[in-house]
Amino acid sequence: MTRTAIIGGHGKIALLLARSLTDAGHLAVGVIRNPAHADEVRAAGAVPVVLDIETASAEELASALAAVSSDGDGAVDAVVFAAGAGGGSGAARKETVDHQGSVKSIAAARQSGIRRFVQISYIGADQADTSGDESFGAYQKAKKAADDALRASDLDWTIVRPGHLNDDAATGRVRIGDDVTSGSTSRANTAAVIAALLEGPVALGGVLNVIDGDTPIAEALASLD
Ligand SMILES: NC(=O)c1ccc[n+]([C@@H]2O[C@H](COP(=O)([O-])OP(=O)(O)OC[C@H]3O[C@@H](n4cnc5c(N)ncnc54)[C@H](OP(=O)(O)O)[C@@H]3O)[C@@H](O)[C@H]2O)c1
Description:
By secondary structure, the chain is α/β, with parallel strands linked by helices. It has 7 helices and 11 strands. The chain has one domain (3-222): NAD(P)-binding Rossmann-like Domain (Rossmann fold), CATH 3.40.50.
């Protein structure tokens, strides 16, 4: 059984991932900022932990994860960064959630001895053009900085980069590769890719551009270098 802490545990991808992990017999912990979301997180099978990654420190996040472990479920062994300030937020929250929230999560994982870290980014994060819309520019800058921080870490990381997200049902079939530069990705397929990554030491140090496609997820991951 794996034990995964999902930062931003009430997000759409996060809830789908929690359901997928717990259905497979794993433990999921949903780190949420709003206690009113706890029941929805429980309904997805996860253990809710209330902690706001904008106001909490990395040490507080590490302590919160340790507290879950000491409740008898065993130590958390993976972190998925699925939080995001969202489309309606301004530039400041892109920095405090999308960038600094990730940096704190990386630090908390390292402090806790958690090696596996999967981060949700987006296709094109390395080619960010921050000259356009201020809010989107801030998002691009924050996501690239978060990905750079994870790449610079000594964790067993994987960066998952979906295209334009949609709410279609999971097909379990995707296209993954450096040649994938645009497209649409269901949140359900994104969650399924992350769940598969957490099953084993797959794509460590990999940046995966993922869109909906024709190849079964296991096959797509197995074909990576
Ligand atoms: N939109 C796209 O087309 C697109 C494309 C590629 C990648 N992405 C990335 O994919 C990520 C996940 O997508 P999604 O649809 O699952 O996003 P989502 O539903 O907006 O989930 C993001 C979660 O982050 C949580 N959050 C925000 N601030 C927080 C804080 N201070 N502390 C703890 N949690 C906090 C939110 O909590 P609340 O529920 O309390 O607000 C929300 O539940 C996005 O954040 C984005 O970076 C998006």
